[in-house]
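Hi V.,

Quick status before I head out on leave. The structure for the redesign project is tokenized and pasted below; the design run finished overnight.
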């Protein structure tokens, strides 16, 4: 059995399991855009000159902001705006 299959079996009901924060941000920006993300999650790194590196740095150090981004990601995933990465 492959490692990815074991990981998915370990937490089959957790849609965030195995999804990196960087991958979340990339998918959200590609499908939703920085401007729209900023209207949904009120954090300065989305409003003011957003870059992946600055946003990742901020989100990794700020648990409440990371939680809000994860919540938005799950909403967009549920609504079909972001395609599911399940294989």
């Amino acid at each position: 059995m492959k490692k990815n299959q074991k990981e998915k079996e370990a937490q089959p009901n957790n849609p965030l399991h195995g999804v990196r924060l960087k991958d979340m941000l990339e998918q959200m920006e590609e499908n939703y855009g920085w401007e729209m993300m900023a209207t949904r999650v009120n954090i300065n790194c989305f409003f003011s000159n957003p870059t992946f590196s600055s946003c990742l740095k901020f989100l990794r150090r700020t648990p409440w902001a990371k939680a809000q981004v994860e919540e938005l990601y799950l909403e967009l995933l549920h609504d079909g705006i972001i395609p599911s990465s399940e294989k």
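Above is the designed sequence. The helical segments are 3-10, 21-31, 34-40, 44-47, 52-61, 63-78.

G. will cover questions while I'm gone.

Best,
W.
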